[in-house]
C-alpha cells in the first residue's frame, strides 16, 4: 500500500497543479464591472489583470443544471465537464449535456463534489456517497470496495499511473488492472489508512494529503512527512492546496498559509498583510498568477504582490468562488456556488479607460503628437502619454465638444475636427485659427498636400485651406455629393477623395470621378490608404474593400470577409489588420494578389452572439484617424474607451478545431463509439456531432458526408445533427468537419463507422441460390417455349393459307368500302350534295381551271326565315325544305358548276364565269315557285337571299379566294338587311382587288358601300335600298 502511495505522488503533482490552476480561472468571468480595492505595484506588461480578460458567464439560464459549479475539468476531446449540486454537465460551448438521475441511478444524489479527467479520457466523479466513472463510450459505472460504495469523495488526482480519491477515506485505484466493463474489483482498489481527506496535490515526487487533523507527504512507498495541525487556530483545517512557485500554498478556514523551505506552516502575507479569510479556492495558473478566493472576494497575486482584488460586480457582492481551472488553450475557468461558471480569455486587447485617466468612454479618433497620442472623444481632447490620459482641451476652444477627427500637419499643428466645426491649435493647444465657415459641419477627414494646402472632408462638402483662405471646392470639382467621407494623399501627391457616391482623384489641377472601376465610381467610401509597397487600398461601408494591384483592382467582397465595412487598416509585417463596425480581423497580404477566398482570422468579434462578453464595442466612425499603430500596439476607438491591441500577442495561441461525433442514434438505441452493426431492419439513423469551442461557437459551420452513400459533402451551417433514412445494407463511415465562417480550411474530420445488417434475402449466399434458381427457371421457360413454338408453327402454316384467301376477299371489300367512305366524307348526309370538306379538298383545282378560262362566280344562298320555319313546323319539315331546295339547285346548275351545302340553310355554288348570274337567279326563283314544297308551306314557298362575287382569272398579290367568299357573304348579308328575297353582286373593279383586300376582311358590310372600287348589281329593291344607305353613309362622313 505504501509503495502505491509513493508511486502515485510523482505523477499527481503535475496533474493537480494544472487542475488547481484551472479552478481559479473560472471565477473571473463573472466580474464584468470591477472595483479595484488595492492598486498593484506590478508594472510588467506581461501581467494581465483580472479586469483585462474577456469574461463570459454560463449559468442555469444557459441550461447548466444547477447554479453551484463545484469542480471543472477538460477531457482530451475538448469538452468542459462541470460538477454541480444538481448533476454533472458536459459542455461544448453550445450546449450542456446533463448527467443526472434520468441518465443513471448512480446520479440519483445530484450533490457532486469533484470531477476529474484521467489521461485516458475517463471521467471520474466524486459525490457525497460514491465514486463514479464515465468512459468515452458514455458507459457509467461505480467504483466499489468490498462491494460497498467508497463514501464521500472530495478530491481526485492522478499519480504515477493510478487514481487517488480522497474523502471519507483515501483510495488508490489501479487503472491498469481495472475491468472497464464492470465496477472495479477489490484487486484494483486499495483503501489506505488515512481518513477525512479534504484535499490532494502533488509536489515533485510526493503526494500531499490534507485531512482534518494532519498534512501528510507520501513518497518512496511511505509517509515521508507528517505535520500536525493541532498547533493552528481552533478548528482550523485545510480546504484547498496549490503549488505556486514550487511552494505549497494552503487555503484554510483561518486564512492563506504556505509550507516554507523548512517544511513549517506559516501565514502567506502580501506586503506584510495577513490574509485571514476562510479560503475555499487556491489556484495557480501557467501565467504566474495565484488566485485565492474567500469571504466573497477574489485575489489575484503575482510574486507575493496583489495585482487586483475583486469584491464587487456591478455594485453587488462578488460570486462565491470555489474552483478554478486552466484549459488546454490557456483560458481560465472559475466555478462559483452562486453564479455558475465563468471563462476568462485574453487575446492581446486591453481597455484603456477610467483607470488610466480617460474620463469619457466614447472615443472617435487619434493622431500623433510630439508628447504622445492625441485622442478625440465625446468630451474633448485627451493626451495619452506614459500610459495615462490627461485632458488637454475641453473648453471654448472647441467649436463642439465631440472631437470627431484629428490631424497633425507638417508644422506640428493640430487640426481638430468636431461634429460641428473645425479649429487649428498650436503645439501648446492655443487657438491658431478658427473656421466660422465650417461651423455646424461635421469634419470627417483632414489631409495635407505637398504644397502645404490642407484639405477638409465634411458632411457639407470638400474644403481647402491655402494661403490663409478657406475655399469650398465641391462645386468646382463637380462632386456628385456634399457628403465627403475621406481625403488622402498618396506617395505621388495625388489627392484621393472618398464620398458617399464614389471615389474622385485630384491631379494636375483637375478632379475627376474615378471610373476605372465601376464599383469605385458608385460606392460609399469609408477609408483610403496606401500599403508600404505603394498599393492603394480603398474601404467601403458595405462593399468590402479594393486594392490596386499591378493588373488592376482586386475586390475583397463581403462574401469573402468577416465583415463588409472598413474603418481602418494597419500593416503588421506580412499581415493586414482591419477594423470594422463588427470587430477586427487579420488578413494575409499575399491574399490580396491571389484568387480565391483570402486567408483571414478574426481577432475580435464585435457582432456575434458573444459580443457582449468577448467584444470591445469597436470600431467607431468613418474617416481619418480611426486607429493608430505604435510599436506593434494598435489603438482603436470604441464606445467603451480606447481598445489597445498588442499585435505580438493577438492570435499567438492558434486553436485548431477538433470535431467530435457524439453519437449514432436509432429508433431504440444510442451508440457512442465502436463500429456497431445495427440490428436487422434498422435503416434510419441520426448522428449528433459538435466541435467543443468556447469562443465564437456560434460562428462554427459544419459539413458532413456518409462515405459509401453521399457523392459529395453536405454543408449544413451551424446544424449539429444529420439524418439518413432507408439506407441500403453495407458498411459506412460518417465523416464530419467544421470551420469558423471566415476560415478557408476545414478541420480534420471526425468519423464514425457502422454497418447496416442485410435482410436474409440480401445475404451473399442468397445471391447464389437466386442465381441457380433463376437459371433453372430460364431453362424451363426456354424448353416449354420451344415445344409451344413448334406446335404453333404448324398451326400457323395451316391458318396462313386459310387467312390468305380470306385476306384477298377482305382487301377487295376494303377497297370498295374506302371508295364509299371517301365519297361519304365529301358529301352531305341529308341532301347528298358536296360538303364543305369537298370544297377544301378541290378548291385549288377548281380555281386553277378557272384561271385558264373566264373565272368563276361565288354564289352564296341562304333560305330566308329558315329558323322560324324550323322552329314552327319542326325539324322534319325543315329537313324536307332543305332537300327540296337542293333538288331545285341541282336542276339549275350546269355539269361543270359545283354545288356545295355550305352549312345549315346556306349553299355555295361555284358558277362558271361564262354564266349570267341574273339569269341563273331568275331561273332559280321561278323553279322555287314550282317546286313541291312540304304541305305546311306549299301555299307560301320559301325565298332565298343570294350574295355573289366574281373571282377573276387573273392572280393578284393580296386578293385570294377567301376574299371572294367573304365579299359574297357580305353581299348576302346586305340582301338580308334590305328585305331579303333578292340577290346582290359585289365585285372589285379591275386592278382594284389588292387595294380593297384588307377592307373586305375587316370592314362591316355597310362600310363597303362607300368603296368606289366595287361593282354592285342585283335585285331592284336591294339596289334601291343600298343606294339610300350609301347616301346616308356619305352624308354622315361629311
From TrEMBL:
Transmembrane segments: 765-784
Record's protein name: diguanylate cyclase
NCBIfam families (alphabetical): GGDEF (TIGR00254)
Signal peptide: none
Top-level division of the source organism's lineage: Bacteria
Regions annotated as coiled coil: 793-827
InterPro entries linked: Diguanylate_Cyclase, GGDEF_dom, Ig-like_fold, Nucleotide_cyclase, Reg_prop, Rev_trsase/Diguanyl_cyclase, WD40/YVTN_repeat-like_dom_sf, Y_Y_Y
SMART domains: GGDEF
Catalytic activity reported: 2 GTP = 3',3'-c-di-GMP + 2 diphosphate
E.C. no: 2.7.7.65
Keywords in alphabetical order: Coiled coil, Membrane, Transmembrane, Transmembrane helix
Enzyme superclass (EC): transferase
UniProt key word Membrane: yes
Domain GGDEF positions: 854-988
Amino acid at each position: 500500500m505504501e509503495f502505491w502511495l509513493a508511486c502515485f505522488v510523482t505523477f499527481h503533482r503535475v496533474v493537480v497543479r494544472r487542475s488547481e490552476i484551472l479552478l481559479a480561472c473560472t471565477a473571473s468571468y463573472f466580474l464584468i464591472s470591477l472595483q479595484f480595492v488595492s492598486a498593484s505595484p506590478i508594472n510588467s506588461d506581461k501581467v494581465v489583470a483580472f479586469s483585462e480578460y474577456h469574461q463570459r458567464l454560463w449559468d442555469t439560464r444557459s441550461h447548466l443544471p444547477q447554479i453551484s459549479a463545484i469542480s471543472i475539468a477538460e477531457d482530451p476531446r475538448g469538452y468542459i465537464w462541470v460538477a454541480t449540486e444538481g448533476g454533472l454537465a458536459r459542455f461544448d460551448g453550445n450546449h450542456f449535456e446533463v448527467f443526472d438521475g434520468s441518465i443513471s441511478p448512480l446520479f440519483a444524489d445530484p450533490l457532486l463534489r469533484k470531477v476529474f479527467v484521467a489521461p485516458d479520457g475517463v471521467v471520474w466523479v466524486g459525490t457525497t456517497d460514491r465514486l463514479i466513472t464515465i468512459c468515452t463510450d458514455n458507459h457509467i459505472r461505480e467504483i466499489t470496495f468490498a462491494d460497498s460504495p467508497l463514501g464521500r469523495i472530495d478530491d481526485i488526482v492522478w499519480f504515477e499511473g493510478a487514481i487517488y480519491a480522497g474523502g471519507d477515506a483515501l483510495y488508490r485505484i489501479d487503472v491498469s488492472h481495472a475491468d472497464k466493463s464492470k465496477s472495479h474489483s477489490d484487486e484494483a482498489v486499495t483503501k489506505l489508512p488515512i481518513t477525512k481527506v479534504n484535499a490532494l496535490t502533488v509536489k515533485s515526487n510526493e503526494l500531499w494529503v490534507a485531512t482534518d487533523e494532519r498534512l501528510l507527504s507520501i513518497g518512496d512507498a511511505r509517509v515521508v512527512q507528517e505535520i500536525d495541525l493541532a498547533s493552528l487556530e481552533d478548528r482550523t483545517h485545510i480546504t484547498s492546496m496549490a503549488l505556486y512557485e514550487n511552494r505549497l500554498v494552503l487555503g484554510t478556514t483561518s486564512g492563506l498559509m504556505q509550507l516554507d523551505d523548512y517544511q513549517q506552516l506559516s501565514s502567506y502575507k502580501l506586503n506584510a498583510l495577513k490574509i485571514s479569510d476562510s479560503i475555499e479556492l487556491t489556484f495557480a495558473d501557467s501565467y504566474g498568477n495565484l488566485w485565492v478566493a474567500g469571504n466573497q472576494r477574489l485575489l489575484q497575486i503575482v510574486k507575493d504582490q496583489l495585482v487586483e482584488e475583486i469584491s464587487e460586480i456591478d455594485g453587488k457582492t462578488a460570486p462565491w468562488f470555489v474552483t478554478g481551472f486552466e484549459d488546454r488553450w490557456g483560458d481560465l475557468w472559475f466555478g462559483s456556488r452562486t453564479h455558475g461558471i465563468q471563462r476568462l480569455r485574453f487575446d492581446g486587447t486591453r481597455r484603456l479607460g477610467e483607470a488610466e485617466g480617460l474620463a469619457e468612454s466614447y472615443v472617435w479618433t487619434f493622431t500623433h503628437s510630439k508628447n504622445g497620442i492625441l485622442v478625440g472623444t465625446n468630451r474633448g481632447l485627451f493626451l495619452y502619454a506614459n500610459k495615462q490620459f490627461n485632458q488637454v482641451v475641453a473648453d471654448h476652444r472647441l467649436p463642439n465638444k465631440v472631437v470627431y477627427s484629428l490631424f497633425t500637419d507638417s508644422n506640428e499643428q493640430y487640426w481638430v475636427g468636431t461634429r460641428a466645426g473645425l479649429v487649428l491649435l498650436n503645439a501648446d493647444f492655443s487657438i491658431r485659427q478658427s473656421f466660422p465657415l465650417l461651423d455646424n459641419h461635421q469634419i470627417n477627414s483632414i489631409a495635407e498636400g505637398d504644397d502645404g494646402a490642407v484639405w477638409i472632408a465634411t458632411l457639407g462638402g470638400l474644403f481647402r485651406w491655402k494661403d490663409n483662405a478657406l475655399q469650398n471646392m465641391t462645386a468646382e470639382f463637380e462632386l456628385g455629393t456634399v457628403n465627403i467621407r475621406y481625403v488622402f494623399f498618396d506617395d505621388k501627391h495625388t489627392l484621393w477623395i472618398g464620398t458617399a457616391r464614389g471615389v474622385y482623384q485630384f491631379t494636375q489641377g483637375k478632379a475627376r470621378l474615378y471610373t476605372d472601376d465601376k464599383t469605385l465610381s458608385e460606392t460609399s467610401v469609408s477609408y483610403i490608404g496606401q500599403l508600404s509597397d505603394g498599393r492603394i487600398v480603398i474601404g467601403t461601408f458595405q462593399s468590402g474593400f479594393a486594392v490596386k494591384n499591378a493588373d488592376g483592382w482586386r475586390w475583397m467582397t463581403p462574401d469573402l470577409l468577416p465583415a463588409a465595412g472598413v474603418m481602418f487598416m494597419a500593416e503588421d509585417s506580412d499581415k493586414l489588420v482591419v477594423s470594422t463596425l463588427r470587430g477586427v480581423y487579420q488578413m494575409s497580404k499575399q491574399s490580396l494578389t491571389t484568387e480565391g477566398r483570402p486567408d483571414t482570422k478574426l481577432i475580435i468579434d464585435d457582432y456575434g452572439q458573444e459580443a457582449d462578453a468577448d467584444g470591445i464595442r469597436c470600431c467607431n466612425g468613418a474617416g481619418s484617424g480611426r486607429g493608430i499603430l505604435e510599436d506593434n500596439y494598435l489603438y482603436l476607438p470604441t464606445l467603451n474607451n480606447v481598445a489597445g491591441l498588442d499585435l505580438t500577442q493577438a492570435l499567438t495561441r492558434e486553436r485548431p478545431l477538433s470535431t467530435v461525433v457524439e453519437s449514432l442514434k436509432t429508433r431504440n438505441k444510442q451508440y457512442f463509439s465502436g463500429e456497431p452493426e445495427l440490428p436487422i431492419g434498422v435503416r434510419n439513423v441520426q448522428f449528433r456531432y459538435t466541435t467543443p469551442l468556447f469562443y465564437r461557437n456560434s460562428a462554427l459551420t459544419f459539413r458532413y458526408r456518409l462515405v459509401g452513400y453521399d457523392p459529395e459533402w453536405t454543408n449544413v451551417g451551424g446544424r449539429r445533427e444529420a439524418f439518413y433514412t432507408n439506407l441500403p445494407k453495407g458498411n459506412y463511415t460518417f465523416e464530419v468537419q467544421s470551420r469558423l465562417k471566415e476560415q478557408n480550411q476545414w478541420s480534420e474530420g471526425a468519423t464514425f463507422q457502422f454497418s447496416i445488417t442485410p435482410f436474409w434475402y440480401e445475404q451473399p449466399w442468397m445471391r447464389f441460390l437466386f442465381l441457380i434458381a433463376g437459371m433453372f427457371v430460364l431453362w424451363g421457360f426456354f424448353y416449354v417455349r420451344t415445344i409451344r413454338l413448334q406446335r404453333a408453327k404448324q398451326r400457323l402454316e395451316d391458318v396462313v393459307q386459310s387467312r390468305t384467301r380470306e385476306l384477298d376477299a377482305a382487301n377487295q371489300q376494303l377497297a370498295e368500302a374506302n371508295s364509299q367512305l371517301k365519297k361519304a366524307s365529301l358529301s352531305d348526309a341529308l341532301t347528298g350534295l358536296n360538303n364543305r370538306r369537298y370544297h377544301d379538298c378541290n378548291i385549288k383545282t377548281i380555281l386553277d381551271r378557272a384561271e385558264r378560262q373566264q373565272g368563276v362566280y361565288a354564289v352564296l344562298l341562304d333560305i330566308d326565315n329558315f329558323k322560324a320555319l324550323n322552329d314552327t313546323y319542326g325539324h322534319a319539315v325543315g329537313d324536307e325544305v332543305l332537300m327540296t331546295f337542293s333538288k331545285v339547285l341541282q336542276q339549275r346548275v350546269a355539269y361543270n358548276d359545283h354545288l356545295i351545302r355550305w352549312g345549315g340553310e346556306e349553299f355555295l355554288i361555284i358558277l362558271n364565269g361564262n354564266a349570267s348570274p341574273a339569269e341563273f337567279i331568275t331561273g332559280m326563283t321561278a323553279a322555287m315557285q314550282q317546286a313541291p314544297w312540304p304541305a305546311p308551306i306549299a301555299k307560301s314557298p320559301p325565298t332565298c337571299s343570294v350574295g355573289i362575287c366574281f373571282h377573276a382569272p387573273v392572280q393578284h398579290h393580296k386578293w385570294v379566294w377567301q376574299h371572294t367568299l367573304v365579299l359574297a357573304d357580305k353581299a348576302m348579308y346586305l340582301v338580308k338587311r334590305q328585305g331579303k328575297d333578292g340577290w346582290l353582286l359585289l365585285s372589285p373593279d379591275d386592278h382594284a382587288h389588292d387595294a380593297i383586300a384588307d377592307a373586305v376582311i375587316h370592314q362591316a358590310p355597310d362600310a363597303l358601300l362607300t368603296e368606289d372600287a366595287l361593282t354592285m348589281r342585283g335585285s331592284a329593291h336591294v339596289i334601291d335600298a343600298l343606294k339610300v344607305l350609301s347616301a346616308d353613309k356619305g352624308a354622315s362622313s361629311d
